[in-house]
DNA sequence: ATGAAAGCGCTAACAC
DNA sequence: GTGTTAGCGCTTTCAT
């Protein structure tokens, strides 16, 4: 209707020249208006915007990218899981990216993906992103070490050491070891002689970090370090681990690397007649939405995904827009241990080999309303 | 190093002409090779690929998009939540999109976002996507009905009726009503006189669908339709609902619109002395990863996000690549009710007003190992 | 404060 | 089978 090419199919999107013509200015002026450049009179700006509105003009991003060499988009590599941690981080990233005016492109790396991280990053590079976020990468078999593709955009790695070298690499989401440590110390403070660890899959850096925090905390307090059981993040693996641990009367406290495993673990313990928290205390990690409502309500470490995403992206965008400048400093997120009903002091020591069931804990029965978010204390 | 512009900064990405020159062919031939077009001799193809490899050539997508008018990317609008359902769907979508050779752009609509769906779609249109997936939209206040922006690309709406008109609109992820219905019928089959419903927020179409299935099932069987309680998907809201329902001795079966609410509900019931499943049966929806490991293991409706995503995207891509062709038909996903321990026949009827605790269920105590995935039956 | 001209790196249509 | 010629719709640089 507007531009008379004759074809009715879909009336060809208006271009900036069309707007310029209608507004009676040059095409460049339209460009100026849309880029908020200075030196456009208010009157002209108004005319241009009005013409654009009338035509339903949207600027063509491909042309823009081609001419400017920047796509104004950020790519994120995530694992293709709906696991609470990675999914929450992704949502946090999206929120911030949009706020900063960039577009978001997403690719997944599946566990066992042959191309893996390199493939994912390559695909983003193909798409021409201005920066890359790698969220919770896992260790690749074989492709250990450097990426084969040269990465010429800034990269933000959330929750892991550098998987490769790029022009600029930033880190974020550290401090999981400190968080784990706070969990362990909570249990030691309650009087547990030591704490067992149900670790996450060690190909995940997140799992390694938590293991490391556990190790460090026990070492710092001169405690025994019992053997580690490795799960796969799933409640099923936590359940399997629980069956093992239930058989060992020495176990009075367990730190699980995520809440799902903690829930499976608690179930297995309960089925074996070892009550939580009376006989065994359990701490999880993540603070998933149901953590306060399972039985017993789970003591756990809350991750602040939004904060982590926000802080990391601020630094990434800074690096994109100020290529020569110094990288902004990272800051460890605060540790936030949420104490609920799954932890309490250990049962009194007694000669091994005798089965017994101790009295109920003071005021901690299942009839207490779960603290909505209550009982949380912030360490560090 | 290769192209001598003198600047060492970052040695300017090679272009297809550079490859052409090195391979001793025309630039167009390079284009042919990279687009897998026919009519290139094996020998030339080899030379081109080798030259490209040597130069580290990656084709410029902005230029490609500008010249061809297609971005080879699909945009997805999701809610900015890590809720299991939406997050799983997003992951499913990503997986399929990559397989089909498209890139994925993601924008969120936050609840209460002023721009809302229109803003999100507009932002994708700005980015120049070839197709749009709208995942689980919620009803917008005010902006009811049509989008103000013209959408000239095919749109796939997952889990909702048409929020607007576009050139092509496809639907997917229907059938939630049938799934809800299967859940209700499972409870009726067990002998419950009727089933209460803890609904999701009714601004979500997914919540409406489940409510509708509940309503239809009760109507079909001529049962009472008790008042509906509306939650917000959270375990906390399920807990609140549970306190209400616990006070009503008539309640013997509850269908919760998602698992998180079901878990909160069960906790509130337990605290009020109403055991699940002995006194009250509960069915959830989603089959979240921990559903089999909470106490009691949750009977729930499993959603097949991968299938839904795959099926929907196949149709979307078809619509993108065959603009004139008939839309591929949709197919309802199969209903998959996973029966675990949170449901059983109702306790024997007795005069109202008397409190009692009935015997334990036959072989259904907490010491049964949770069926990993067991006890599932597929309806419809 | 505004405009003219020259590409950005590719694909499309046609020639050979 | 391969090359040539034009743009795609912007941003950039430089004039004015």
TrEMBL record, chains A, B:
PROSITE patterns: HTH_LACI_2. Gene3D superfamilies: 3.40.50.2300, lambda repressor-like DNA-binding domains. Residues 14-68 form the HTH lacI-type domain. InterPro entries: HTH_LacI (IPR000843), LacI/GalR-like_sensor (IPR046335), Lambda_DNA-bd_dom_sf (IPR010982), Peripla_BP_I (IPR028082). Keywords: DNA-binding, Transcription, Transcription regulation. SUPFAM superfamilies: lambda repressor-like DNA-binding domains, Periplasmic binding protein-like I. Pfam families: LacI, Peripla_BP_3. Residues 325-380 are annotated as: Disordered. One of its GO terms (molecular function) is DNA binding. This is LacI family DNA-binding transcriptional regulator. It comes from Streptomyces plumbiresistens. The lineage of its organism: Bacteria, Bacillati, Actinomycetota, Actinomycetes, Kitasatosporales.
């Amino acid at each position: 209707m507007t531009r008379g090419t004759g074809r009715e199919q879909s009336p060809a999107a208006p271009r900036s020249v069309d707007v310029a013509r209608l507004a009676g200015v040059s095409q460049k002026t339209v460009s100026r208006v849309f880029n908020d450049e200075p030196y456009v009179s208010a009157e002209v700006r108004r005319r241009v915007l009005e013409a654009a509105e009338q035509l339903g003009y949207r600027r063509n991003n491909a042309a823009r990218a081609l001419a400017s060499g920047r796509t104004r988009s950020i790519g994120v590599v995530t694992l293709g899981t709906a696991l609470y941690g990675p999914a929450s981080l992704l949502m946090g990233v999206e929120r911030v990216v949009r706020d900063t005016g960039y577009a978001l492109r997403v690719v997944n790396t599946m566990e066992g993906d042959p191309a893996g991280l390199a493939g994912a990053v390559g695909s983003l590079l193909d798409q021409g992103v201005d920066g890359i976020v790698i969220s919770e990468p896992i260790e690749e078999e074989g492709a250990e070490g450097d990426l084969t593709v040269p990465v010429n955009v800034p990269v933000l790695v959330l929750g892991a050491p550098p998987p490769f070298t790029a022009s600029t690499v930033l880190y974020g989401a550290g401090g999981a070891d400190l968080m784990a440590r706070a969990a362990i110390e909570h249990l030691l403070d309650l009087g547990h002689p030591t704490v067992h660890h149900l670790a996450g899959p060690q190909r995940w850096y997140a799992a390694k970090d938590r293991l490391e925090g556990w190790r460090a905390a026990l070492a710092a307090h001169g405690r025994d370090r019992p053997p580690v059981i490795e799960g796969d993040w799933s409640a099923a693996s936590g359940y399997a681990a629980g069956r093992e641990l239930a058989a060992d009367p020495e176990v009075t406290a367990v730190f699980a690397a995520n809440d799902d495993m903690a829930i499976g673990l608690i179930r297995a313990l309960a089925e074996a007649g070892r009550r939580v928290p009376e006989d065994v205390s359990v701490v999880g990690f993540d603070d998933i939405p149901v953590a306060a409502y399972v039985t017993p309500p789970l003591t756990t470490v809350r991750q602040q995904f939004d904060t982590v995403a926000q802080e990391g992206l601020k630094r990434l965008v800074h690096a994109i827009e100020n290529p020569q400048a110094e990288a902004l400093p990272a800051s460890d997120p605060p540790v936030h241990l949420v104490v609920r009903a799954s932890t309490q002091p250990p049962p009194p020591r007694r000669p091994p080999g005798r089965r017994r069931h101790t009295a109920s804990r003071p005021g901690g029965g299942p009839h207490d309303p779960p603290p909505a978010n209550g009982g949380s204390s912030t360490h560090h």
